[in-house]
From TrEMBL:
Cofactor(s) it depends on: FAD
Protein name: UDP-galactopyranose mutase
The species this protein was found in: Flavobacterium cyanobacteriorum
Gene Ontology, cellular component aspect: cytosol
An example Gene Ontology molecular-function term: flavin adenine dinucleotide binding
Family affiliation: Belongs to the UDP-galactopyranose/dTDP-fucopyranose mutase family.
Lineage: Bacteria, Pseudomonadati, Bacteroidota, Flavobacteriia, Flavobacteriales
Residue ranges of every copy of the UDP-galactopyranose mutase C-terminal domain listed in the record: 149-350
One Pfam family matching this protein: NAD_binding_8
InterPro entries noted in UniProt: UDP-GALP_mutase, UDP-GalPyranose_mutase_C
Keyword terms, alphabetized: FAD, Flavoprotein, Isomerase
Signal peptide: none
Length: 377
């Protein structure tokens, strides 16, 4: 490995953006990735059925950040893609987020005006001023009946916790709509990269100042990595510190088991993602990848998602207990000079993709500004 000015651990969104930014500013950057591929959990590839599939679950890009949108468009073309999700509830397929169609179908109603839907919600939701956990957040939005049908068991399957054991922010991710809008997100920009995310990352990392090293766990070689100006770590923060603050109470993460199968039919389901919020099925979702970008193939690939405690960490688990453990690591991290913790696992925060781009871009800008100020002195 050659000497580098900047060392980046992890080739997901945060790592790739910082790598590109520093390389573009003239620094030599070494990016070390444990897996055999770049792109982190955005990694996608063409499978045996000729379908572009994501190895670690569907990734739907959406943002209101102008700077992030401009940044991602510098490297690849994007095509508009408004993600929709349907949920199988009481044997019916209904839109999620809850909208007029959801309520009409599940309760046999015929709501035709937004005002009627607002009234229905007022009669059914449980207003709670400041929801203190995920259960209160969902009850406040949709009330007990929809909570039970669509959120309670799904959350238990996804997190192995009931909503009352999670921060309100988790359930607040899902809005409720008083119109017919059946998009999963409301952001100004909703799109997917032409050719997939791996291609996007290849382009982000395509620079003569960048050396990408795959298949190497940083912790196996950390004593050989020295002489850098700055190191950016994007892995789990507790691992960096040898789990020393969580020997008894572990900092929790959720992982996902992806179980794929080929179905010998043109389509398996009517939508890219169908959620299963009931107790009957252990999986949370079935993804049919060929829907993304309307890929045309004779067969189809479906992937069932089972969330689990075991395996690679994908999601931090937002609640007070974990936050307290994380705080201990954060304080430890703050004491280090020239080492920066960035991204979902290193910041232990449930960032969306665009937030990950934004944080990495902002971190680079603020560190560059600091450097400039130091030079001026
Ligand atoms: N959720 C739910 N039922 C659903 C979809 C989501 O209860 O059909 C809850 C669940 O707790 C989930 C949270 O809402 O963790 C946020 O969902 P989101 O789709 O944002 O999760 P992600 O896409 O990050 O997996």
């Amino acid at each position: 490995m050659r000497n580098a000015d900047i060392v980046i651990i992890g080739a997901g969104i945060s790592g790739a953006v910082l790598t590109e930014r520093y390389a573009d500013s003239g620094k030599k950057v070494l990016i070390i990735e444990k897996r055999d591929h770049i792109a982190g959990n955005c990694y996608d590839y063409i499978d045996d059925n000729g379908i572009l599939v994501s190895k670690y679950g569907a990734h739907l890009f959406h943002t209101n950040f102008e700077d992030v949108w401009q940044y991602v468009n510098r490297f690849n073309n994007w095509y508009p893609w408004e993600h929709k999700v349907i949920a199988q509830v009481d044997g019916q397929l209904v839109p999620i987020p809850v909208n007029i169609t959801t309520v009409n179908k599940l309760f046999g109603l015929n709501i035709t005006e937004e005002e009627e839907m607002q009234q229905w919600l007022e009669e059914n939701r449980l207003p709670i001023d400041e929801p203190k956990d995920g259960r209160e957040a969902a009850l406040n939005k949709v009330g007990p009946v929809l909570y039970e049908k669509m959120f309670r068991h799904y959350t238990k399957k996804q997190w192995d916790k009931y909503p009352e054991e999670l921060d309100a922010s988790v359930l607040n991710r899902i809005p409720v709509r008083t119109n017919w809008d059946d998009r999963y997100f409301s952001d100004k920009y909703q799109a997917l990269p032409v050719g997939g995310y791996t291609k996007l990352f290849e382009k982000i990392l395509d620079h003569p100042n960048i050396e990408v090293v795959l298949n190497i766990d940083y912790f196996d070689i950390c004593d050989q990595v020295e002489g850098y100006e700055k190191l950016f770590y994007t892995g789990p923060i507790d691992r960096f510190f040898g789990f020393k603050h969580s020997l008894q109470d572990r900092l929790e993460y959720r992982s996902i088991n992806f179980v794929g199968e080929t179905v010998d039919a043109e389509y398996f389901q009517e939508n890219s993602v169908v959620n299963y919020p009931g107790q009957k099925n252990e999986f949370t979702q079935i993804i049919e990848y060929k829907h993304f970008g309307n890929q045309q193939t004779p067969k189809t690939t479906i992937v069932k998602e089972y969330t689990t405690d075991e395996g690679e960490p994908y999601y931090p688990v937002p609640n007070d207990k974990n936050q307290k453990i994380y705080e201990k690591y954060r304080k430890e991290a703050e004491k280090l000079t020239d080492v920066y913790f960035v991204g979902r696992l290193a910041n232990y925060k449930y960032f969306n993709m665009d937030q990950a781009f934004k944080n990495a871009l902002d971190l680079f800008s603020s560190l560059e500004k600091q450097e400039e100020e130091l030079e001026m002195q």
